[in-house]
Amino acid sequence: MQSFFDTRRYPWLVWVGFALIAVSLAVLPFALAQVGTTWVRITNYAILYVLLALGLNIVVGFAGLLDLGYIAFYAVGAYTYALLASPQFDLHLPFWVILPIGAAVAALFGVLLGAPTLKLRGDYLAIVTLGFGEIVRIFLNNLSRPVNITNGPQGITRIDSFKLDGFDFGHYGSLFGLEVSGPIRYYYLLLAVALGIIVVNLRLQNSRVGRAWEAIREDEIAARAMGIDTRNLKLLAFAMGASFGGVAGGMFSAIQGFISPESFVLVESIMVVSMVVLGGMGNIWGVILGALLLSFVPEILRWTVEPLQQALFGRMLVEPEVIRMLLFGLALVLIMLFRPAGLLPSAVRKRELAERAA
Amino acid sequence: MLEVRQLQVRYGGIRAVKGVDLDVGEGELVCLIGANGAGKSSTLKAICRLIASDSSRLSYLGSDIRKSLVHELPRRGLVMVPEGRGIFPQLTVHENLAMGAYARGGGDPAAQYERFPRLKERRHQVAGTLSGGEQQMLAIARALMSEPKLLLLDEPSMGLAPQMVAKIFEIVREIAAQGVTILLVEQNALLALELAHRGYVMESGEISLAGEAKRLLENPRVREAYLGEGAG
Lengths: 358, 232
Fold this sequence. Notes:
The complex is a heterodimer of chains A (358) and B (232).
Chain A: H1 12-35, H2 37-62, H3 71-84, E1 85-86, E2 91-92, H4 95-114, H5 122-142, E3 163-164, E4 167-168, E5 173-175, E6 178-180, H6 182-205, H7 208-218, H8 220-225, H9 230-256, H10 266-279, H11 284-313, H12 320-338, H13 347-357
Helix pairs in contact in A: 1-2, 2-6, 2-9, 2-10, 2-11, 3-4, 3-5, 3-9, 4-9, 7-9, 10-11, 11-12
Chain B: E1 2-11, E2 14-24, E3 29-34, H1 40-47, E4 57-60, E5 63-64, H2 72-75, E6 78-81, H3 93-100, H4 110-115, H5 117-121, H6 132-145, E7 150-154, H7 162-177, E8 181-186, H8 189-195, E9 198-203, E10 206-212, H9 213-218, H10 220-226
Parallel strand pairs in B: 3-8, 3-9, 6-7, 7-8
Antiparallel strand pairs in B: 1-2, 1-4, 4-5, 9-10
């Protein structure tokens, strides 16, 4: 086994691997559509979570700043899109104009959060960011009076889907005789955006900026003594992480067609943090794995728990929702006990945690 | 090269440094000695702008650095080795050295490996697992990566075995001999004065004595206070 997969002896194996992954990713939505379009939708939401987790990974994993209000940036991106492409203000800008605006607005909010918290670390930073996330949500809930901006708790409806040159991502169509539903179109778009963001993350990690973040995470004073501008680099981490969240939010808006403040509650922030922690802070592949696991496993449970109980006991004893949370909690506890640095930890993070335990 | 006039540092209401005057000329090795809590480290941190301070003059290479930002100074060759070493404990020795060249935008650690063969042996080891002396070597080597003109050393002997202290001081002497100007803050007055050209003695936030290191070594007050001779 070992020798067969030795990529140094058989460099072409890498390319075969890439080709296999590419083909399976390309075919995946059609296979899933056979089971049910719902599964394509679930996959799309999973990819959205991958985008969010990758964005948060920049702040938490790379720069070491614990952010418990990350979903606020998702909300900012989502509302930016919704307000600029819905009957709310009767604006219908094209998505490729709004997504960059959404990213920029989210980045601005990232700096707004980052600037006053520059001197905070660890628990204290976590508390402030948690509060920030709530502030944004409460604002969205209440910005309906005296001037109606967000439409309050009712949320914004009839949000435009992505349209490109007459090609509507939200509509049904066919290609080469294959049925291509809206969710399948969005799947490819999401996949493309996810790949883009993965590439940006990979390039960042070993860049000058990525190294500087690593130094800040390790020892801020020493980092400053090395000539690293800690203030700007921390703000940059907040802004970049936020802008990824903003892009994901805009796409969420378009795919759903409806958003309300209820989608941006604290539990969502905690969910994204869990994905990053479970997968392995600072490791891009770990974070992706964490996001996929935490979005798919609950769905799989939702579909299996009920029939399983019916078969075993003849009736339903425990609600799937309850079991989901139970298993979710159990999984997190086990991970923290046995793999505290995550499923696929980054090398440096692993050492950091081992050091703290010792 | 470095000119400090009327430097003051306050921590809340407490004045830790009360108007210090200090000069370091090009190529000099100057030491700042004094007891615990005399304000030596505060002075050093104020010079490299890590903490806020007041002064009538704070200039480096002829330019005023009272408004400079911390991270700009290493780029201009003013580099500090922080107290307690301040290495990046989870990065390898090699990665630590690479980080040292950040201000210059990259550099080759070969020269440092030549100076510190021990670090070369351990270049793939995680820095936190090095001994105290090795960590101090790494901290100095990392600072040298940015090719400093003026090196500020904050208590390099702290917490080290006597043998290792001697070794570190030997290295400081070598670095100075190669033309790097050094301001050394030390509690170990005897060793620091033997090494330095000039010295300043600091007592409760003020410079109480200054002069050639040799003279200070002979000064009865210094001998009494710091070298454990006389009165007692």
